[in-house]
Amino acid sequence: MELVIDNTPFKALLQPLDLGFTTLKNRVIMGSMHTGLEEDKHDFSRLAEFYRERAHGDVGLIVTGGFAPNRAGRLGPRSAKLTSVAEQQKHELITHAVHEAAGKIVLQILHAGRYGMHPFIVAPSRIKSPISPFTPWTMSKRRIRKTIEHFARCARLAQAAGYDGVEIMGSEGYLINQFIVEHTNRRADEWGGSFSNRMRFPLAVVHAVRAAVGEKFIIIYRLSMLDLIANGSSRDEVLTLGQAIAAAGATLLNTGIGWHEARIPTIASMVPAAAFSSVTKQLKDLVTIPVITSNRINTPELANELINSCVADLVSMARPFLADAQFVTKARQGMSEAINVCIACNQACLDQVFVNKTASCLVNPRACHEMELVYEATLHSKRIAVVGGGPAGMAFAHIAALRGHKVTLFEKHDTLGGQFNLAKVIPGKELYQHTINYFNYQLAQNQVDVRLSTAATMDNLTGFDEVVLASGVNPRIPEIPGLNHKMVMTYVEVLTGERIPGARVAVIGAGGIGFDVSEWLTHAGHTDANAVSFVDEWGIDLLGLNRGGIKKPVAPPKIRKVYLLQRKAEKAGKRLGKTTGWIHRLSLKHRAVEVLTGVTYTHIDDAGLHIIVSNESRILQVDSIVICAGQVENHELLLPLQQAQMSVHVIGGAHKALELDARFAIDQACRLAALL
After folding, report:
1. Is the four-CA dihedral 202, 203, 208, 209 of positive or negative sign?
2. What is the pLDDT of residues 421-476, one digit of tens each?
3. Nearest CA among 665, 397, 632 for reference residue 492
4. Alpha carbon 48 to its chain's center
């Protein structure tokens, strides 16, 4: 193994870590993420297979999604808990699968506190959270002591189930975090008041867990380094608590960022890579146990640099292991170009979990569906034509060729990527280029015949056994008098650089495309001299000068005057991602975008865009109008192919023109490729 490591460019990341009683094979942690499989009523076979693939992929240590130590601590009325021997026995399937694959796994113990979505939630004080409809019951002293015992019981059960350790969730605003800060702890007894009293609960939990499991068992404590809420912990309090937790018996310290109620993005795509890792370094310099950094780390190059520069001892990556179970194996082989990189979109993972659906991954639909979406070698190789090199076409061609079919892909433009070539120019979505690169690599590896600058015709589709139309979408053009005015342009013309909008712009359509274009319009033109950094715009204090890690935000410079218009009389962006919509709305608010809903468009002329809002006529004196009114399917070849009695399939936007819904497109493509 040492010889392989010597040949890799990621030596720091892949070196083992000796914990004294056990050794981690490398410095990569698969961080905790709830998948929805934790609540499986039958057994954990799907969850076990999900973790087995990641263990086979050589990750150093896996952390499960959160399991509550008692009923009151559950995230929801049917959420996962580990409180009995019967529940413990279900977990043995997971630990056996991971150990059989030569991996290690720890169970995260998570008590939701006031974040729970059921009427029996408890907290240090009776203060309702902004993200739960229920007000918590104040914990009595007896309830506090029993809860500490329940943490210890949960750890014992995890140990009996075969886990290599536990992670105690003391971050993200859950119960332990709620004890630590005055924002949620207004107690006047020994569990509240002074900071020494407020940190009593997490220390008691760590002491109790260590006593329950003995010395040769991993205990990770997830510490909130930045709460990102008013009246949160100060930097000195965080560092003091970290040192105390280490002394109390923790094996590793994991650094968490932001409470769930904080109105500051921490893991979405617009967050810069490793944006918060500098605060991990502050802790690492003060403790003697290994420290883990996390948040927006998604490539081996970045992870290796963080270890190499002594920012942390280990790197935690969660969603990157949804995107690619073989992340570490590929890094070890020096093949980072083969990694399917997480683009931090949240669309198939967090957005799904937050509406009680099973998580997956936009760029890898097999994630959490390993037992149903299987790519087996075909017994009968076919000649398959794919029309269109966007996300759906690339995904289908990759999987079909991987299975052994002979695939030819026709793309009328001179590059692959389709709608992703538009998405990647949006500020915060630059990572979409990674997905294009990944598919380009895989198509070459699997010998797909890619014909760029070649429009598919009935003539060149003759002779194929199957034709897959992945021809994408065209912009939908609404019927507005004067739409042929010279100031009108489509979002495609804007994002490709074909047309340059002026200083005053009206955006027609406030769906995902309208928000993206508005983001682009209010960023375009920034220079190093006038750009505002992410941390300044969102008011993040990485230096620890302010309690909670927040400071006064700095307004970005005004590049353009932008109006974002919507026909429906409802909140703009209502159908944006569950976990990212609020970020997009706040970002446009920062940039003084004027959002108008319930708009009727009357006509366009030299005076501007004439509209009616709230029964009042208004003229928007703009010099550019960008049409973002949705899309229509582009499947002009469908009827001729059907008339020629050819076997044809329609996928992606050509099948259903949703607003840049790459999640649907790639999932549909991969499922079809698995069946043909």
Report:
1. positive
2. 999 999 999 999 999 999 999 999 999 999 999 999 999 999 999 999 999 899 99
3. 632
4. 22
Given a cut of 70, is residue 100 above it in pLDDT?
yes
CA distance 120 to 48: 30
For 236, other C-beta atoms within 10 Å of its C-beta total 11
Residues 635-657: what's their mean pLDDT? 91
Q: Which residues 6+ apart lie within 8 Å of 614 measured at CB?
A: 598
Please state, in angstroms and rounded to a whole number, the distance separating the CA atoms of residues 603 and 508: 12
What is the per-residue pLDDT for 1? 30
Q: Residues in the chain, how many? A: 676
Could you give the CA distance from residue 456 to residue 401 in angstroms, rounded to a whole number? 19
Q: For residue 28, what is the enclosing H or E element? A: strand 28-30
Q: CB count, 10 Å around CB of 167?
A: 28
**DSSP, residue by residue, 436-488:** HHHHHHHHHHTT-EEETT----TTTTTT-SEEEE---EEE-----TTTTSTTE
Contacts of 536 (CB under 8 A, 6+ apart): 553, 554
Could you tell me where the beta strands, DSSP code E, fall in 233-303?
252-257, 291-293
Angstrom distance (rounded) from CA 444 to CA 558? 44
What confidence category does residue 42 fall into, taking pLDDT thresholds of 50, 70 and 90? confident
The DSSP code sequence of 194-237 is: SHHHHTHHHHHHHHHHHHHH-SSSEEEEEEEEE--STT---HHH
- For tokens 């056994």, name the residue: 465
Cα angle 289-257-236, degrees, rounded to a multiple of 5: 60
Given its phi and psi angles, is residue 372 left (phi above 0), alpha (psi -120 to 50 degrees) or beta? alpha
pLDDT tens, residue by residue, 345-401: 999 999 999 888 999 999 999 999 999 999 999 999 999 999 999 999 999 999 999
Rounded Cα distance between 666 and 672, Å, is: 10
Tokens of 477: 């053009």
pLDDT band at residue 527 using 50, 70 and 90 as cut-offs: low
Q: What is the DSSP string of 654-668?
A: GTS--TT-HHHHHHH
How does 329-346 read in b/e, with b if 16+ C-beta sit within 10 Å? bbbbeeebebbbbbbbbb
Nearest to 51 by CA among 98, 90, 93: 98
Which residues is 505 bridged to in the sheet?
562, 624
Contact, 60 vs 317, CB < 8 A? Answer: no
Q: Are 129 and 80 in contact (CB under 8 A)?
A: no
| 5 CB-contact burial (10 Å; exposed 0-12 / middle 13-18 / buried 19+) | middle
Q: Which are the catalytic amino acids?
A: 174
Average pLDDT over the chain, rounded to whole?
95
Which amino acid type is present at position 436?
A: I
For residue 397, give both structure tokens: 């061609």
Maximal CA-CA distance, the chain = 82
Structure tokens at 221: 């404590």
CA distance 318 to 367: 12
Instruction: Report the C-alpha gap between 226 and 235 in whole angstroms.
Output: 8
Let me know: does 341 contact 364? Beta carbons within 8 Å.
no
Rg (CA), the chain: 26
Nearest partner of 300 among 60, 28, 7, judged by Cα? 28
The Cα 248–Cα 258 span in angstroms is 24
* Residue range 103-144, pLDDT digits in tens: 999 999 999 999 999 999 999 999 999 999 999 999 999 999
The two tokens of residue 299 are 């490539």
